[in-house]
């Protein structure tokens, strides 16, 4: 038979036993949320002062915020008196399921963090990777966007990109331009070299140091291939404009000197 007095006593006992724990848990939750906000803001400001890549800062801030929230929830659950091991097991199972479902995305995310941290290339660099060449336009956390010389937009997943061979053409200030010209082997080498050196000397885009070089690259039957190696600023090397200009100058000079290209 239902006893109201005993029921009220049970409620009072429960309130005495758990009421204070609930109040303390709520207090811990509120203080913890305030602390998490302050910690994440301080960390974001620290990353700004340390010049951490702007694309990386929000993601690191969010990761820190999630980790701290999970820890806070575990503390609150323990304070209330609930079994925390079940929560940890549930959290682990959920994390495993999400990780398996998003395996590719997580790989790209990790690759993006690695690229933004190690910086094998930066926005504006001309790179070659995964069979593609182009100027880095955007480095996102999941992919890197490059623009090709013919204005195509290519999205490279950061996971494979972080572990692939990347050729960065813009790390050094100068690049070497190699050209070859095949002429009749009967021509005097000094004459052909003189024409090529004159062209090199009159082009202001070719730097003096390292010094240019002109020589015989190959002899084959009745032909002789002259090798021209010059150094230019990396900006002048772009889009093959200087090589095209030098080829035109060499052709015009050879025609004036009656030197036939083979």
From TrEMBL:
GO terms for cellular component: plasma membrane. GO terms for molecular function: mechanosensitive monoatomic ion channel activity. The keyword Cell membrane applies. Residues 178-260 form the Mechanosensitive ion channel MscS C-terminal domain. Pfam families: MS_channel_1st, MS_channel_2nd, MS_channel_3rd. Its main location: membrane. The keyword Ligase does not apply. SUPFAM superfamilies: Mechanosensitive channel protein MscS (YggB), C-terminal domain, Mechanosensitive channel protein MscS (YggB), transmembrane region, Sm-like ribonucleoproteins. Keywords: Cell membrane, Membrane, Transmembrane, Transmembrane helix. The chain crosses the membrane at residues 15-37, 58-78. It is found in: Cell membrane. It is a multi-pass membrane protein. Residues 62-103 form the Mechanosensitive ion channel transmembrane helices 2/3 domain. Residues 105-169 form the Mechanosensitive ion channel MscS domain. Belongs to the MscS (TC 1.A.23) family. This is Mechanosensitive ion channel family protein. It comes from Rufibacter immobilis.
């Amino acid at each position: 038979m239902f006893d109201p007095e005993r029921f009220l006593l049970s409620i009072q006992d429960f309130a005495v036993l758990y009421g204070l724990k609930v109040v303390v848990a709520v207090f811990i939750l509120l203080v913890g949320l305030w602390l998490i906000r302050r910690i994440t803001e301080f960390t974001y400001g620290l990353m700004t002062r340390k010049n951490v890549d702007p694309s990386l800062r929000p993601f690191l801030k969010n990761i820190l915020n999630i980790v701290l929230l999970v820890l806070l929830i575990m503390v609150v659950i323990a304070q209330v008196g609930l079994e925390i091991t079940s929560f940890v097991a549930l959290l682990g199972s959920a994390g495993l399921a999400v990780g398996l479902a998003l395996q590719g995305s997580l790989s790209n995310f990790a690759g993006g963090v690695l690229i933004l941290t190690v910086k094998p290339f930066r926005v504006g660099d001309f790179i070659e990777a995964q069979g593609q060449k182009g100027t880095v336009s955007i480095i996102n956390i999941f992919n890197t966007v490059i623009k090709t010389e013919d204005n195509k937009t290519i999205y490279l997943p950061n996971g494979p990109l972080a572990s692939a061979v990347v050729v960065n053409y813009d790390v050094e200030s100068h690049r070497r331009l190699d050209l070859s010209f095949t002429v009749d082997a009967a021509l005097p080498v000094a004459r052909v070299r003189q024409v090529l050196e004159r062209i090199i000397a009159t082009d202001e885009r070719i730097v003096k140091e390292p010094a240019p070089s002109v020589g015989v690259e190959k002899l084959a039957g009745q032909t002789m291939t002259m090798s021209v190696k010059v150094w230019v600023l990396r900006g002048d090397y772009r889009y093959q404009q200087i090589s095209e200009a030098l080829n035109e100058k060499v052709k015009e000079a050879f025609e004036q000197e009656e030197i036939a290209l083979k």
